[in-house]
Amino acid sequence: MGRKSRLPICWLAQVAERLLTYNLCINNDQLLPSVCLKQLAEKQYIIHHQMAAADSSRVRAYLGLNNSAQYGYKKYLSKVDNAQLRKTLARFRCANHKLQIELGRQVKPVKVPMQHRYCKLCNLGEVEDEDHFLLVCPTYQSVRERFRGSLPLTAITPLAELLSCQQQGILARFLVQCQTVRSELLHQT
Ligand SMILES: [Zn+2]
């Protein structure tokens, strides 16, 4: 009888009991257990996310590009209606692009040292990273001129400021045009 009365009454109670063994508690009278469990899972994931960011140079680069270490829905996703443009922006922010900074990382068996991942389209001798590509490389100067009235594109604009600007749709079109120029020039060489 005593044994039976201690059994959990539903699966959530069983989950709660198991979590307690890890010093995690979903007991909160103000919230439904399922809501509480969801919040707990999110809290734990955010802790994991912060630890991963501290450990991975790639995640640190992503957070640097996105001007925010905060976990959560990124507002730029709701500022661009066109799905293709939205995808272009998201890919670039996740370093899913063909710039040398990323290509050099993928070379096997030995990665190209980061400081040697030079831009092949200018003679500045700089690493072709996101900052060089969008704000510095003279190859895209004419594209920048077309967008200068709508985007913060001065030589001293921090990349994070450009990527977090209000005009995300225009930013996406600027990005597409730069990528098109790059792709055409590289196929000619
Ligand atoms: Zn360049």
Please explain how this structure is put together.
The protein has two domains: 11-55, no CATH class; 80-188, no CATH class. Helix content is 55%, strand content 0%. The termini are far apart. It is built from ten helices and no strands. It has 189 residues and is mainly alpha-helical. The site of zinc ion (ZN) has 8 residues, from loops.
**Element order: H for helix, E for strand:** HHHHHHHHHH
Strand content: under 5%
Count the beta strands: 0
Percent helix: 55-70%
Instruction: Specify Rg, calculated over alpha carbons.
Output: 24 Å
Q: Give the N-to-C terminal Cα separation.
A: 83 Å
Name the structural class.
mainly alpha
Unique ligands = zinc ion
Overall structural domain count: 2
Largest sheet: none
The dominant shape is: elongated
Runs with pLDDT <50, length 5+? none
Q: If you average the pLDDT, what whole number results?
A: 82
Count of DSSP-assigned helices: 10
